[in-house]
Specification:
Blueprint lengths: L6 H15 L6 H12 L7 E6 L5 E5 L11 H12 L8 E7 L2 H9 L1 H21 L9 E9 L5 E10 L1 E3 L6 E3 L8 H21 L15 H13 L4 E4 L5 H8 L13 E5 L2 E8 L5 E8 H9 L10 E5 L6 H12 L35 E7 L8 E2 L5
Antiparallel strand pairs: 1-2, 1-13, 3-5, 3-8, 4-5, 4-12, 6-7, 9-10, 10-11, 13-14
Helix pairs in contact: 1-2, 4-5, 5-6, 6-7
């Protein structure tokens, strides 16, 4: 069922006015994101006509924009990604660890997205690898998936990284699997201190090399002394890092991971109304018992907050590290499974049984007729906007 209100509806209704009002301060990436979401699954992108072989049912299907910021396009991309990740699951506990940047750093990150977001990934990865390699903790090589989110529940700029980590590590000689303590991953205060130091070192080095640029209210940070003064109080503050208890099963790992991998700043399902010039949506107040609340914003402010989270071209927001890195994942996982001597029913690959699919209900099959269950065939192609003649589809039967 399609939601009654979509981000695309708000963009179509208020986008022209927003573009006009911010014409001199509107970037190429933000313009492209808005345009893609507005045109997604409309006649402007073209499409095709499908007809059922068994009954008279016919429907028109318009093309998707496939932009990674589009709420309508990420569901399918997420399901495909998670299906591929099933083969990577191990029969061990998994931990969810989150690293968050302070608000002062978030403001700097917004004006230097690609550079500071990369620093965030690098500092998180080095923190986890360093502490896990210490014999006082686990004493081996971790593997983990890191996912960047840049938003909070009210669409403010809140950069943080979610990490999904198997509860153990490969020994330095890669001959043993070292399990972490039951229901305990790594000491949070140690992770927080090292993460803070590593990130601030990278930030200081980048500023000294002239790689950071600040403007507007932050323009004074271009001065080395002012920048050093801004970082000083952050060195004494505890940075937020937390780890949740391990998951009960590999199926729960996938279900949980699906909530984070291809999420965008706000899902269409959270939108309540767009009356006049006001947009109202649901949000959870985590500081007050996860209470569900409503927030109303001016349409222009809603668009501004949504576009805060546009990522730079080519930037990867999902990354793999350690024994889950793309270059060595297959061979390392096969070796770890041998070490664990896991029963075939718990393995995600290499046996007769596999982990159950992420969804209990059958996946949506776009080729099935919703009326009779017959097969839908493409009978005509719809060109992009500007052409009005339907192109017959060649017979491929």
């Amino acid at each position: 069922m399609h939601p009654a209100l979509e981000v695309a509806d708000i963009f179509r209704r208020h986008g022209p006015g927003y573009r006009a009002a911010h014409d001199g301060h509107f970037g190429r990436i933000e313009r492209r994101v808005m345009s893609a979401i507005e045109l997604c699954r409309t006649a402007a992108l073209g499409g095709h006509v499908e007809s059922c072989e068994n009954c008279a049912h016919t429907r028109v299907a318009y093309n998707s924009c496939r932009n990674r910021h589009c709420p309508k396009c990420q569901g399918g991309a997420r399901d495909q990604w998670l299906a591929a990740r099933q083969a990577d699951l191990l029969p061990v506990p998994y931990f969810h660890v989150v690293f968050t940047l302070p608000a002062e750093i978030a403001a700097m990150a917004y004006q230097n997205k690609a550079l500071v977001y990369t620093m965030l990934f690098d500092a998180v990865a080095e923190t986890l690898k360093t502490i896990a390699a210490d014999p006082k903790h686990i004493g081996g090589e971790l593997g983990f998936i890191a996912i960047l989110h840049t938003w909070g529940q009210t669409l403010t700029h809140h950069p943080h990284v979610h990490c999904l980590v198997p509860g153990g590590a490969l020994s330095p000689d890669r001959e043993r699997w070292i399990a972490c303590r039951p229901r305990f991953f790594l000491p949070i205060h140690v992770l927080s201190s090292l993460f803070r130091r590593l990130f601030l070192e990278r930030l200081k080095t980048a500023h000294a090399a002239g790689r950071l640029r600040f403007f507007g209210a932050l323009s004074t940070l271009n001065d080395p002394c002012a920048f050093a003064d801004a970082l000083r109080p952050l060195r004494a503050r505890r940075w937020i890092v937390y780890a949740k208890p391990p998951f009960d099963s590999p199926e729960h790992v996938l279900a949980y991971l699906g909530r984070y991998t291809h999420r965008v700043a706000i899902a269409n399902s959270r939108l309540i109304s767009a009356d006049g010039n006001t947009v109202t949506f649901r949000w959870r107040d985590y500081r007050h018992g996860n209470t569900l609340k409503l927030m109303s914003l001016d349409a222009g402010e809603f668009i501004r907050r949504f576009l805060l989270h546009s990522l730079p071209d080519g930037f990867h927001r999902i990354r793999h590290y350690g024994f889950l890195a793309n270059g060595c994942r297959r061979t390392r996982l096969a070796r770890i499974r041998q070490m664990l001597v896991a029963p075939k029913s718990a393995l995600a690959a290499g046996g007769d049984e596999t982990i159950q699919p992420l969804h209990q209900r059958p996946p949506f099959d776009p080729t099935l007729c919703p009326c009779c269950g017959g097969t839908l065939r493409i009978t005509a192609m719809l060109p992009r906007r500007g052409k009005s003649i339907m192109q017959p589809c060649p017979d491929t039967s």
